[in-house]
Amino acid sequence: MTKPLAGKVALVTGGSRAAGRGTAVELGAAGATVYVTGRTTRAQRSEMDRPETIEETAELVDRAGGRGIAVQVDHLEADQVRELVARIEREQGALHVLVNDIFGATTIEWDKTVWESSLDVGMRTFRLAVDTHVITSHFALPLLIKEPGGLVIEMTDGTDEYNAVNYRNSFFYDLSKATVNRMGFSLAHELEPYGATAVSLTPGWMRSEAMLDAFGVTEANWRDATERIPHFAISESPSYVGRAVAALAADPDRSRWNGQSLSSGQLAKVYGFTDLDGSRPDAWRYMVEVQDPGKPADTTGYR
């Protein structure tokens, strides 16, 4: 099998689970060395209190054919991020791909106005979603631009087009995800003179570990949940957006996407990758054309 990212170094933040884990593993499958960061280790859980760990993700990267390196980092702590990047430079001498996937909010107060919401909870959500990305970019990008061709992915929820006209049911969540989308646009302008590319990227309705638990299913029998939540039929595994990242990283012409807001389903059509089941779910088009107008669940033509 070809390894288009052999010799490349990636940093995937928030890699304990969900999109971060799926991305780290797919980059590993393409041959990359992947630094996997997060707060949850086998010895210590984050405030999310989930069992998935960065060590497990690193091992999955190894099994996929890459090299996984787990580093416990709280990306709100500037000193920890500074040391992380210094370590990558010492050990690898370069950074080719940065995936800013940090979120980790435990409580989101849905369907409350900004004045009804807890300010402490809301600001914590915003800091985890936004400040972490800013701090990481501040320290990591000087290493990434040492060589032309670098790639920055700002992982978010919702495309620019969708979020521009749809309120995401929480002031703080809505603002956070729109801000991360804008980061991809802003970084594109700052990185272009150095031959690097930045984009924002969203999965669709993702079957994260927490989502599967909430619906009482596993990845093996996830379709059982569609009996109660019919539109869950459009959902996708974390590997799907991971394959989107790997495809972008391996594309020598990826600069054509610079500054754009992208989705896993959109890129699957361009690059030809599929989800684990061989399908190509296009969740954001489905949301607009089927789910949001209140039509019955029907994924025909959407996966």
UniProtKB/TrEMBL annotation:
Protein name stated in the entry:
NAD(P)-dependent dehydrogenase (Short-subunit alcohol dehydrogenase family)
Top-level taxonomic group: Bacteria
Q: From which organism does this entry originate?
A: Kribbella caucasensis
Entry's NCBIfam families? Answer: PRK08303.1
